[in-house]
Specification:
By secondary structure, the protein is an alpha/beta fold. The chain is 53% helix and 15% strand. A seven-stranded parallel beta sheet has the order 3-2-1-4-5-6-7, sandwiched between helices. Helix 5 links the parallel strand 5 and strand 6.
């Protein structure tokens, strides 16, 4: 049976870049995204251009039952040797003005979906000669940020979960990597929100650049993938009492 790479949040941005990068390497893909998002068109393009098999599954992964259903469908029909947990959501709002649905969606999509889907597919990955998991966190995982609050906390979970699971699976055929990219040039709204000021533009990278580095280092079994070393180093060395107010000031501009 052929092996596949599963990518969540695959229709645009970094998820789409992952799909293209894997297709270039002649790896079959299963792409997951929300319904009515043109995912079938992307699959056909990948199959025609790269001569690989590409399947799609449309669902809202912020709903717990849909995550379980996806895992069951995958395990029934496919051998998975790569899992890329890319789906996620965020935003910038005052906590007092944030709807409860906004908070709940961030927690469900960023935390529950990543943990549960990994749990459901891990036995499948362990059956393969080699298995790879890539979880997409964020530079926000390293620091609290006012006006984002829940989002950085959710990405801290992904970072901790990934590093811990990688240790747990150390003597198996499955490795776990986590990447913490900064702002990504995905669409106009993201560029406008996060690209304000010199620091925002300095952090922003093209999704294709990130995808290429990630897949290369994923196969090298790097536990933590660094895509922007200079920004990563700055965030690591700055004390919290400096970087948290600084990043909060930048985030405040997104809602002004």
């Amino acid at each position: 049976m052929s092996q596949y790479a599963l990518i969540t949040g695959a229709r645009q941005g970094l998820g789409k870049a992952f799909a293209i990068e894997l297709s270039k390497r002649k790896i079959n893909t299963i792409l997951v995204s929300r319904p009515n998002n043109g995912l079938n068109i992307l699959c056909e393009e990948l199959k025609e251009k790269y001569q690989i098999d590409s399947r799609y599954y449309e669902t809202d992964l912020s709903e717990y039952k849909n995550v379980i259903d996806l895992g069951a469908w995958i395990n029934l029909h496919f051998d998975i040797f790569i899992l890329i947990n890319n789906v996620g959501t965020g935003g910038t709002k005052k906590m007092t003005e944030a709807p409860i649905e906004y908070i709940n969606k961030i927690l469900n999509l960023n935390i529950v979906t990543t943990a549960v889907l990994t749990h459901q597919l891990l036995p499948n990955l362990l059956r393969q000669p080699k298995g790879y998991i890539l979880n997409v966190a964020s530079l926000a995982a390293y620091l609290p940020i006012g006006f984002k609050t829940v989002y950085p906390a959710s990405k801290s979970f992904i970072y901790s979960f990934s590093r811990g699971l990688n240790q747990e699976l150390e003597n198996t055929n499955v490795s776990v990597s986590v990447v913490c990219p900064g702002p990504i040039k995905t669409n106009g709204d993201v560029i406008i929100r996060t690209g304000k000021g010199y620091f925002g533009k300095f952090m922003m990278l093209e999704p294709e650049v990130i995808a290429n580095k990630c897949i290369r280092q994923l196969f090298e079994k790097k536990a933590e993938i660094i895509v922007n070393p200079m920004v990563w180093f700055l965030i690591k060395i700055l004390p919290t009492w400096i970087k948290t107010p600084l990043m909060t000031k930048i985030a405040r501009k997104e809602i002004s």
